[in-house]
Amino acid sequence: MSEYKGIAGTKIQNFSSDPSDPLEGQIWYNSTSSTLKGVVLGTASWATGGGLNQGRHSSGGGGTSKDAALVFGGRGEPPNPKTANTELYNGTSWTEVNNLGTARYGLSGAGDQTAGLAFGGDLTPGTTTASESWNGTSWSGTASMNTGARFGGSCGTQTSALSAGRANPPNTAIVESWNGSAWSEVADLNSGRSYGCGLGADNSNALLVGGGSASALVESWNGSAWTEITDLNLGRDQLNGAGIQTLGVVFGGTNPAASPNPTANTEEWNGSTWTETANMATARGRAAVGPMGTASSAMEAGGTPVNGNPATEEFTGGGLTTKTFTTS
User: Fold this and answer.
1) Residue ranges covered by each domain of the chain
2) What share of the chain in percent tops pLDDT 70?
3) 166-216, pLDDT tens digit by residue?
């Protein structure tokens, strides 16, 4: 039988109390309670939420959790090629509030229910540079982007956001950073693509996940340059997600090689590896783009393959938990 040292390369450490910030996979012996303990990833799950009042795909979004979200813009069933509709979610139902100033789809979002940001998008015809700020009640115009952007990945807050990649066409590596008053072009992605998913707390620490033609590529941003890191298990575009550079989750998206396509696949990120976890009930892509919650409390709203999809699902992450190991 293999010993722990032979597998992990170190002996099990003794502690008089549990470590304050243990890592996933770490095992230790608590000498006070005489127990063997370790950190494991809990069980994640999806649950059905209240449906959008206006079903749509390719919308922007933002939010702090699965119980507090914002969705705006998008594209519904004909004759609704684009919409300015905005809705707020309270954990049970969606409420229609004041519309965007510019109706569009393929736009991106940042921020949350009380302080949001909408930028870029497709006007059919044309691509827009328009950026708007949400104060919890209404939208107002802000400084425009430098380049028209549609189907770009995004993350951050109302005062510190990032737009990474876009389809103008063609797919580009353009990245723009928002500081609360102006957009600035910064270092390009290593790989130009659209339909990627952005994870990040602000414009200085972020990930761009997937995109392009069902890519598994992940790039990390440190405020000045992009670095390729660990790939997704399932490459895809048109995916969505939530979380920060070191702890996140992505879900849905399209991959022609996957069955079904779109996919319901969900992967959790711990800062170094991707782990496949509970699938969504409904496979879809092109849901609301933006920081839709956190790694442990996220949501998916709208999406394809149905243009007027109103479906909402709420995600509860497995998270890291301390487990006591027994012989029984």
Assistant:
1) 4-41, 45-316
2) 92
3) 998 789 999 999 999 999 999 999 999 999 999 999 999 999 999 999 999
Spatial neighbors of 271 by CB under 8 A, at least 6 apart, are 245, 246, 247
Q: To which H or E segment does residue 102 belong?
A: none
Largest CA distance in the chain: 69
Integer-rounded Cα Rg, in Å, for the chain is 20
The one-letter code for the residue type at 49 is: G
Q: How far apart are CA 81 and CA 289, in angstroms?
A: 18
Residue pLDDT, tens place only, 53-82: 999 999 999 999 999 999 999 998 777 789
Is there a cis peptide before residue 78, judged by omega within 30 degrees of 0?
no
Helix (H) or strand (E) holding 327: none
Decide the pairing of beta strands 240-244 and 226-228. Answer: unpaired
Residue 153 has which token pair?
A: 């990945």
237: DSSP letter: B
Q: Give all strands (DSSP E) within 120-217, no chain letters.
A: 131-134, 139-141, 153-156, 161-167, 171-178, 183-186, 197-200, 206-209
Tell me, what DSSP letter sits at residue 58?
S
Take residue 148 and report the two structure tokens written for it: 């028209």
191: tokens are: 């790989």
CATH architecture, range 45-316: 6 Propeller (2.120)
